[in-house]
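Async update (no meeting this week)

Hi team, since we skipped the sync, here's where things stand on the single-chain job. The sequence we agreed to prioritize is pasted below, unchanged from the tracker. I ran it this morning and attached the output directly underneath so nobody has to dig for it. Comments welcome in thread, and please keep replies under the output.
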Amino acid sequence: MKAFMDEDFLLETETAKQLYHDYAKAMPIFDYHCHLTAEEIAVDKRFSSLTELWLEGDHYKWRVLRANGVPEKYVTGSAGEREKFDKWAETIPHLIGNPLYHWTHLELRRCFGVTDTLSTATADKIWEACNQKIQSPSFSAREIVRSFNVKGLCTTDDPVDSLEYHKQIEQDPSIDFKVLPTFRPDAALHIEGAGFREWLERLEKASGGDITSYQDFLHALEKRIDYFHESGCRLSDHGLDSPFFLTATKERCSYIFKRAVNNERISTQEAAQFRTAVLVHLGKYYAEKGWAMQLHIGGLRNNNKRMEAEIGQNTGFDSIADFTYASDLSNFLNELDKTGSLPKTILYNLNPRDNYMIASMAGNFQGDVPGKIQFGTAWWFNDHIEGMENQMKTLANVGVFSRFIGMLTDSRSLLSYTRHEYFRRILANLIGEWVENGEMPADIDWLGKVVQDISYHNVCHYLDID
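Output:
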């Protein structure tokens, strides 16, 4: 029996051990999609306690706390920091088979040097040891990032963001890793939403001009893309959670836009038409800038309306949607491709039933750049051992696995960089299994290079980032 989380954790063969320890382990990280804030890094934020650093804003943890019967007071409510930590310590032993059990203990080991498993019996010891380290002069936002050998990360930013903290970071010679913005214009696509008119006013201020027409609107978005590009942005990101391809003329879109500005009700069909037109326009402009476009498809968000009203959106009440979108995706990509305006694109599906559809769809529109259309890494409810293995096996079965751009954190927590280690161990183990089964030649140098490329090099080349 192996010891829990020893140096060969998740590595089942000698080949896997060699690929991980000799090739993957020491590779830098480029985290091309996360939800960290540039402000935390710009001001080199320090943290008051393990609870603030570890539990605040983490809806993964919030969901399982609730599932374990923990009252909301101890999740997002008024309970003290130590009380919230104690509820997490009480919950952890119940998370058998959940990746949070592994992530929790990887974070304790890699960030704090704590090898005890977390439980009510060890809560006092772990609380004191971790908080003591948090108070040390070397434990700050920047130092946490550096400790994981992160060479760059991409935040997720609204088009109206000033990017002031990104600029501050860029001008600070003491920050030796890249912090780049990502253009996330979801607010621009949801013209039917109650907040669209207010957001449009913010876009006017950010772009420096009046927006009185649909054409003004598109021009303002282009100006913000130019602004983001000057700050190092090379990625956009879109959350697509409902049908997203329904064509309409410019005149029709102008009419829909005018009605939205006048606070008139926008129908589901009109919203889809407008969303399609804006997506196509943005895709063409991304291609001009040489950006990559990310499409996160398939969330069913904010399901619990009672809790949404009580504590707000994006607080852990989301799940996997089951709408079908193969035709929408094909038509959207084809609309851009037929005019030579399809940018590099990364496709992420939340419903794992869509793995083969997404992987095969990517193959329809390749060209110009190795791995131009990427089947993105296992996302959200799928970033566990089984989900990562299934995504990689699917890609290997129908695509070019060695061009895969690998893992990202998609996290608001600075401690989540242990997930790259988790991914690399799973990657090494998968390839190691193929070798040990005689499915691949035992050319370790070649396979080691594949592992290193997927771990780091491929995404840097893909985004043209040094």
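Quick observations from my side:
The chain has a mean pLDDT of 97.
Residues 14-46+138-462 form a domain with the TIM Barrel fold (CATH 3.20.20.140).
Reply here if anything looks off.
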